[in-house]
Amino acid sequence: MTSSASHSFTGTTRILLAEDNPDITRFVTFYLKNMRHAEVHPCKDGGEAMATLAQGPFDIAVLDGNMPVADGLAVLRWIRAQPALVSLPVIFLTANHDRSFEKECMAAGAQLVMTKPFNPGLLVRQIRSLLATRRPG
After folding, report:
1. What pTM value is reported for the model?
2. What residues are paired with 62 via a beta bridge?
3. Per DSSP, which regions of the chain are E strands?
4. Are 78 and 109 within 8 A, CB to CB?
5. What is the pLDDT of residues 12-36, one digit of tens each?
6. In the chain, what is the greatest distance between 2 CA atoms, to the nearest angstrom?
7. Which residues pair with 60 in a beta bridge?
8. CA-based nearest residue to 45, from 27, 23, 24, 63
9. How do residues 43-76 score in pLDDT, each as one tens digit?
10. Is 96 helix (H, G, I), strand (E, B) or coil?
11. Higher-confidence residue: 2 or 26?
12. Could you tell me how far CA 53 lies from the centroid of its own chain?
C-alpha cells in the first residue's frame, strides 16, 4: 500500500466515498466529479471502503456514519491504525445530529463532520481546503 502523498504527483485527487444510500452516492459523486481532476471511488459499505483504501492511494475519504458491515467510526479507527493512511483526511457525512457523535468522530481523527442534509458546495470547498493544507504549492 502506498501513501496518498506519493500519489499527489499525478494531479488527480482520489476521493473515497463510503455511503450506503445510492441516491446520496449519486448526488455526492455528481458534485465531487465537478472538482478539477477528481476521481471518485464509491463504496457501498464499510467493508468495501476498507478493502478499497487498502489498495490506495487516496487523498481524502468521505464516510457515512451509519453503514452496513462496518460503520463510519469503525472505518475511521481502522484508517488511523494503518501506517500508510494515518494522515488521510476524513470527512463524515452523517444523519446523526447528536453532538456527542460529532465529538466521538473528531476524537477518533475526523477532520470534519457534516450533518445531512448538507450543502454540496460546502463539502467541495471543505475538501479543497483540507487538500490545500496537505500539499505544498
Report:
1. 0.87
2. 17, 91
3. 13-18, 38-43, 60-64, 90-94, 112-115
4. no
5. 889 999 999 999 999 999 988 888 7
6. 39
7. 15
8. 63
9. 999 999 999 999 989 999 999 988 888 899 999 9
10. coil
11. 26
12. 10
